[in-house]
Amino acid sequence: MAALVAGLLALGASGAEAAKGKQIKITGEIIDSWCYLTEIMYPLGTAHHQCALWCAVGGIPVGIVDDKGTVYVILKVEDEPGNVAPKGVLDIQTHKVTYEGTAYERDGMKYLLVSKLVEDAGIVNMTHEDYGIQPFGD
Predict the structure, then answer these.
(1) Quick count: other Cβ atoms within 10 Å of Cβ 87?
(2) CATH, domain range 2-10+21-131
(3) Distance CA 129, CA 138 (A)
(4) Are strands 109-120 and 71-77 parallel, antiparallel or unpaired?
(5) How far apart are alpha carbons 76 and 116 in whole angstroms?
(6) CA-CA distances (angstroms) from residue 86 to 15, 37, 82, 89, 136?
């Protein structure tokens, strides 16, 4: 994890300047990046909650998508020691949240180092009626 963040900050491979982080406040839904980007399953809200947990625990990068569809891959959450299945994210997977943090961008990818969870609105994207419980529900 430290090497990933250091590499992102250094950006030495292409001779580009060091990445400049930008302080942002972002509101959006916590997603698992695999299902969201591949569209292999409906990737939002209650219809995807259990799968999103399993993907995060399995090492799939967790992200946040805002209302405009902008996705940030979450590299670190507050003081948690790693970015694979951090407890702070597992507790709020598929919730709509507001984070404060430092955003970085490289080669079209957006990354977020979360410094603070500002608000947790819970799961607001209730999609069972439209999409059914997918795939592991009762």
Answers:
(1) 9
(2) 2.40.50
(3) 14
(4) parallel
(5) 11
(6) 32, 21, 6, 6, 22
Tell me, what's the pLDDT at 103?
97
Indicate the SS3 state at residue 25.
strand
Instruction: List average pLDDT for each run of 10 residues in the chain, which is 138 residues long.
Output: 50 52 95 85 76 87 93 90 74 91 94 94 75 52
Q: Whole-angstrom Cα distance, residue 135 to residue 77?
A: 28
> Could you please report the per-residue DSSP string of 28-82?
EEEEEHHHHHH-SS--SGGGGHHHHHHHHHTTPPEEEEETT--EEEEEEETT-S-
- The count of other CB atoms within 10 Å of the CB of residue 119 is 11
Q: Where are the domains of the chain?
A: 2-10+21-131
Dihedral of CA atoms 79, 43, 95, 45 in degrees, nearest 10, equals: -160
Distance, in Å, from the CA atom of 23 to the CA atom of 108, rounded to the nearest integer, reads 18
Cα–Cα distance measured from residue 128 to residue 50, given in angstroms and rounded to the nearest whole number? 12
